[in-house]
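Reviewer 2 asked us to include a model.

Predict the structure of this chain.
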Amino acid sequence: MKKILIVGAVGQIGSELTMELRRIYGNDNVIASTRKSPPSEMVANSGPFEYFDVVNKQALEDVCKKHGVDCIINMAAILSAVGEQNPLQAWDINMNGLFNVLEVAREMKMEQVLVPSSIAVFGPGTPLDCAPQETVLKPSTMYGITKVAGELVADYYVKKYGLDVRGLRYPGIISNETLPGGGTTDYAVAIYYDAIKYGKYTCFVKEDTRLPMMYMPDCLKATVDLMQADFSTLKHHSDFNVGAMSFSVKDLADSIKKYIPTFTIEYKPDFRQAIADSWPDAVDDKAAREEWGWSPSFDLDMMTQDMLKVIGEKHKKGLI
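Predicted model (structure tokens):
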């Protein structure tokens, strides 16, 4: 790959993925983009940046031709909680945007497209104790519906056109750099910030809610590892389960209390509880481990120590 375009590069994952890929491939070879949200200074100043809407195919095509793009990573999406407030917009951006990405990549004969999916593809009928790679996919949110459809469409482009399309089902992603953007697992990030700033947190799901999670360094590693895998070794393409750790909110709170003994937590479940209850507490990622060597590095306490250290330093500097 020579030139990589990241669509939706100012979100929680996109912003950090931009910097990681610029480190690997060179600043000028990774073009970041967004629809309207301003990027961080680091993303904006370290390499090319473009404003356009992914639902505007011509605008996408113009940017790709301008920079000679041969790989698109489509991070643009309306997430689960926000998507329930505006399901039609979620469908428009998540699906019509995806079709534009795939069509531009096909027409320009690009080398690769990466289209992340999510544990939101799971729903009623999926085993809740550990979701298999192949299982029932009947999500209860518009976000989840678009992700299931997206996986199917992406695999269609592989089979129909021979386009190299890849994707992985992200669990809840936890970061100390960028705040989440309206997902059901946002509590697993917000709890650390509130622990540092206020010594307490009010959680919007119950204490026994257990979901698969992943620390951002492992998220970036999984994404890059899949991008760099030999396409001929992949039996799956757009729907890899990837796991790292699984814990309840109480487990998370107890991990924080090891380092902030005075930390307290209160539970006030809202509409997001029903979404969380429809998702499995873990995923079977045997396919990812066998087909491209996936292996995570962080467990809960390792992540907690790092999160509290980084966020604590930011707080002392008045950055949060």
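The domain at 174-214+245-282+299-316 is CATH 3.90.25.10 (UDP-galactose 4-epimerase; domain 1). The chain has two domains: 4-171+215-241, 174-214+245-282+299-316. We have added this to the supplementary material.
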